[in-house]
Amino acid sequence: MIKFVNNYLVPTASIGPPLLPGKYKSVNCSILSVNGLFSTFAPMSTRKLYIETYGCQMNVVDSEVVAAILQQHQYQLTEDIDEADLVLVNTCSIRDNAEQRVRARLRDFRKIKKQERPVSIGVIGCMAERLKEKLLEEESIVDLVVGPDAYRDLPALLQEVESGQKGINTILSLKETYGDIRPVRMDRNHVTSFVSIMRGCNNFCAYCVVPGTRGRERSRDPETIVREATDLFSKGYREVTLLGQNVNSYRWKEGGSLLKFEKLLERVADIDPAFRVRFATSHPKDMSDQLLKVIAQYPNLCRSIHLPVQSGSTTVLERMKRRYTREHYMERITAIRKQVPGASISTDIIAGFCGETEEEHQQTLSLMEWAEYDFAYMFKYSERPETHAAEKLEDDVPEAIKRRRLHEIIELQSRLSLKSKQQDVGQTFEVLVEGTSKKSEEQLYGRTSQNKVVVFPKNKLKPGDYTEVTISACTSATLIGS
Ligand code: SAH
Ligand code: SF4
Ligand code: F3S
Q1: What would the mean pLDDT of 392-399 be, rounded to a whole number?
Q2: Mutate to test the pocket of ligand 1, among 196, 350, 380, 383 (most ligand atoms within 8 A of CB)
Q3: What is the fold of 303-423?
């Protein structure tokens, strides 16, 4: 099974089934071959892989890539941890609490290790990259540590584990994009999916571990992106989200020509008018008018833009090394409102960054009021080792003040989210049906192009259908359609 926890790179629906995989077909074979060698570890038909995924959508896709690599080496997915031969935890390091959750989970896994049957436990992803050998030293139940660029080495590392050693590879790559690997899809709805278009990040925002855990930015071959998206559409998927830490800096050089993000987006949007396309995340310093122009031209490019601001204060943004000002950010929002009318805008905000004064915090609140965000992910600043902020700035906002400021930001956003939904009441939207509502079998849920979740009566609709829904009521999280 893949269990997805705390996805925040892309705003996700808060209703309906969680992002869990369906059952997977098992491959019947009696002998296990790993890298061409016969293993005596367990017969192949019992080789089961269980993956739990933490962190952002990039990790969700990476787990799908890992499942594809291991499927080639005779591992089949299971949703039942008790029957797994290999348990992988795909981890996140973005805030300290993300790592603490994984540590707690590893403590839970001790009981699995006590079973008679041998079970290998692997930590993969950003925490593996950040902590490297230290993880093996600190967590004795861990057999395998693999960083985000080393997943192709998993089968060989598993062989080492089977021979009684620990397996580790945390080498970052300047080239790896897993472009040729077709991920094993693990979403539950078979309607919406993600395609990674680039890896790594070169921005080095002062607070952020990602450039350290994911390495340098690199773009994926556009042919493989378009092929993967086309394949999704042909399998019945009706929405794809193109993923990267800063999609605006996507670039692919071939021959003498340069393909930028805008052009890639057009290519994916051209697959079919009934194929919705989203993307995340945009960096305010790089979001161009040309991109907005392309969105405006294509009805299937979703009217929803995630533009993380982090802080409304220019001085804080400077300390964060975000490389834009409050004024530049506001100018970008104005451009979105003008060029893509009706688009929803969401953001990420960090409360209590190093040296944040009360006045700087107030500027974040005033910017939120001004921007009227439809949705936001809001966090308390968490100092991360080896970042610029950890090394050069003081984490000096007292915990109680951080908490109070975050609370004020969340309160304000709930009001703005409710207002945003209330403005939709009485209007009609095209909704892509994703599944049956958690609360009632008679109700379906789906999303508008603006990425707002709508719950509405089933009629004869099924997941993957488009339908026009008139909004009759709302809560701060959900639109209710009639
Ligand atoms: N590449 C994306 C963000 C990826 S991380 C971008 O630049 O917008 C997702 C979010 O986590 C960030 O936008 C930020 O709001 C938050 N975040 C990152 N590091 C953090 C830290 N050290 N403490 C608290 N929040 C953090
Ligand atoms: Fe982190 Fe900044 Fe890169 Fe986003 S752009 S991943 S916040 S360093
Ligand atoms: Fe994503 Fe967390 Fe890594 S946000 S890139 S999984 S540190």
Answers
A1: 98
A2: 350
A3: Transcription Regulator spoIIAA (3.30.750)
